[in-house]
């Protein structure tokens, strides 16, 4: 019996999670996988009820689970809170607690969705990138100091920091992933300016030397450009935490909608799975959000945390089939297509399983 | 008599600067502007001759000049050098010496070039963004420490830091610029994670309150996405040094080629003008680089440092006219167009003056 902690979070988190949970249940029934799903709170809604964005109980349950399926957190309503109480602390705190350091963000442009991209079809067609983003270090978790103008502290700072071993383990993840793909790794840095980037470049270079992959290095500014100019040139994109945050959101539009994109965060133990989009408070509760990112995150959970690649592939094919049938949520709706609510889209995927 | 320091730098810097200098000379003759151009060394080629990427003489001349026109620096050949001797130190050192803190990067999609964009024409058409990037602070100039694995120093770090006054002065630049445009400023940060970003957001909010502009705040990851999804929504984009580096390179492709894009770096005194592209060692010496970015940087010099808006506009119109005549360097060449070398493109602009 595998335990899955389900954390819908804020905003559209509730609705997309409902659709994803239904798909996950059905798939595990079909494949005879014994799972127990239990729901937990996190984010701004958790803060409203419990005065913390990440209740102890949620952390304990996540640590005890075999996999965690996460929706999204955040919203303007909680923007005035002090940093430690903001909804984002739920996701940062969970990543920290679970020790997940490798964030995998596959960016695939499905052929029948290529025309939905803001880029020209001939440029995005065939794009298939795996972003491997370091998730436990860098400027996200370095020492920092808030400014407090009233107290005369007129300067704030944050520290970007990486150690050799932190870089080595994420480089290893990228190389292993590349071997199951087209065996090419592009490592992103700003080595012409940053000390951490120079260490990053040297360390990745050394780590990749023994892996059977080709490696190149690219400055982050150039990479931000090449992702739009020629996305098909990339196979595995290896990045620090901050650069990966920016580049993966940028890359997410290549396939037409960020709503389609899942992610897996892996460490030594329990994995954390989430769509890469946010909580979209403006459309929350309207039953129009795209649940596919979360559904595909559930597939990644089956693959990486439960070791069930066939069940994972079944979900991925069902999503494909539902889209090919013409179902489109509002983020991708176009004349002539079948307009789907969040629930409709979930149901269309279920029917294809 | 106005003194202009001309610094071609490395790689294609030489060839593009030649074209730009010819245009600048002719324009100032036509408009009766008395200038004296003098050439100085910087970058890897300067290092090869003088063992420093930024000779004292160059710094002194830049400080004494009314404006500095800069080409590009860098190349793999110098990548093995210790950080303090690398070609990039020339541009970082010059920015520091001149005290320039506001980097203006106009991103305009010319109607007749919209089809050259990797984005769909209907998405980029009408894009007209001014990126105002803070240039004298942030993680570029914060304290850092290199790792030295042999010496057991297995960790490197860099510091992102901003003070209230640094943020105020760049916010002021952005608001002033916005007033001459569509009066909207989008300020970019990562306030859900970084202390510097929270100070950035509060300070910009306060500064803009009295300026007659509308202001919104956007997370950097979302901004990287929106620049591709819907670039026409932006007017002035206000960013930190690092975020501006990434976003401006990303945005530079909207208009079809980074080779077209100029920039101005302004402070209290002498301004520094450069194309936003790099030194492109792979095509250096081939007479195929696009000189328009540097030519348009010379126009910005006339406008911002010499107070000659008509002469600046004359250059901008001449570039437009040459492109509309069909002249295209290799980065933008297409069947049916007139193939231009670097020199041809310069000559075509000259003829239009
Ligand atoms: C919510 C935020 C803290 C988070 C991040 O920056 O990592 C998000 O943008 C992401 O990419 O998962
Ligand atoms: C050469 C490099 C140091 C520089 C920067 O990062 O500022 C360049 O990329 C730029 O944007 O002008």
TrEMBL record, chains A, B:
EC numbers, comma separated: 1.1.1.85
Keyword NADP tagged: no
Required cofactor(s): Mg(2+); Mn(2+)
Signal sequence bounds: none
Domain Isopropylmalate dehydrogenase-like residues, every copy: 3-349
Protein's name according to its UniProt entry: 3-isopropylmalate dehydrogenase
UniProt-annotated site: Important for catalysis, residues: 140, 190
Gene Ontology annotations for the cellular component aspect, listed alphabetically: cytosol
Family: Belongs to the isocitrate and isopropylmalate dehydrogenases family. LeuB type 1 subfamily.
Pathway(s) annotated for this protein in UniProt: Amino-acid biosynthesis; L-leucine biosynthesis; L-leucine from 3-methyl-2-oxobutanoate: step 3/4
Binding site for substrate: 95, 105, 133, 221
Entry's cofactor comment: Binds 1 Mg(2+) or Mn(2+) ion per subunit.
Entry keywords, A to Z: Amino-acid biosynthesis, Branched-chain amino acid biosynthesis, Cytoplasm, Leucine biosynthesis, Magnesium, Manganese, Metal-binding, NAD, Oxidoreductase
Known catalytic reactions: (2R,3S)-3-isopropylmalate + NAD(+) = 4-methyl-2-oxopentanoate + CO2 + NADH
Quaternary state and interactors: Homodimer.
Function of the molecule: Catalyzes the oxidation of 3-carboxy-2-hydroxy-4-methylpentanoate (3-isopropylmalate) to 3-carboxy-4-methyl-2-oxopentanoate. The product decarboxylates to 4-methyl-2 oxopentanoate.
Gene name, Swiss-Prot/TrEMBL: leuB
InterPro entries assigned: IsoCit/isopropylmalate_DH_CS (IPR019818), IsoPropMal-DH-like_dom (IPR024084), Isopropylmalate_DH (IPR004429)
């Amino acid at each position: 019996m595998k335990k899955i902690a389900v954390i819908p979070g804020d905003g559209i988190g509730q609705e997309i999670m409902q659709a994803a949970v239904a798909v996950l249940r059905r798939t595990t029934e079909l494949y005879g996988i014994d799972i127990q799903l239990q729901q937990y709170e996190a984010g701004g809604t958790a803060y409203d009820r419990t005065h913390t964005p990440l209740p102890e109980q949620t952390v304990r349950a996540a640590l005890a689970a075999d996999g965690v399926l996460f929706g999204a957190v955040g919203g303007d309503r909680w923007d005035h809170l002090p940093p430690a109480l903001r909804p984002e602390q739920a996701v940062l705190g969970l990543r920290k607690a679970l020790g997940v350091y490798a964030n995998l963000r596959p960016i695939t442009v499905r052929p029948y969705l290529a025309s939905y991209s803001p880029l020209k079809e001939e440029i995005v067609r065939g794009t298939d990138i795996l972003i491997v983003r370091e998730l436990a270090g860098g400027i996200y978790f370095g020492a920092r100091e808030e400014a407090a103008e009233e107290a005369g502290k007129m300067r704030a700072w944050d520290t970007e920091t990486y150690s050799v071993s932190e870089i080595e383990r994420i480089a290893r993840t990228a190389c292993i992933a590349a071997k199951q793909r087209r065996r090419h790794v592009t490592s992103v840095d700003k080595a012409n300016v940053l000390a951490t980037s120079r260490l990053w470049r040297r360390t990745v270079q050394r780590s990749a030397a023994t892996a059977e992959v080709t490696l190149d290095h690219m400055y982050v500014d150039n990479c931000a450009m090449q992702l739009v100019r020629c996305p098909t040139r990339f196979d595995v994109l290896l990045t620090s935490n901050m650069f990966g945050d920016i580049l993966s959101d940028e890359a997410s539009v290549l396939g037409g909608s960020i709503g389609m994109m899942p992610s897996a965060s892996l460490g030594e133990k329990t994995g954390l799975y989430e769509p890469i989009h946010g909580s979209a408070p403006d459309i929350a509760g309207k039953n129009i959000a795209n649940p596919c990112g979360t559904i595909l995150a559930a597939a990644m959970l089956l693959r990486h945390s439960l070791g069930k690649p066939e069940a994972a592939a079944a979900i991925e094919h069902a999503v494909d089939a539902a889209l090919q049938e013409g179902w489109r949520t509002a983020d991708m709706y176009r004349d002539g297509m079948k307009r789907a609510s969040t629930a409709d889209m979930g149901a269309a995927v279920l029917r294809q399983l």
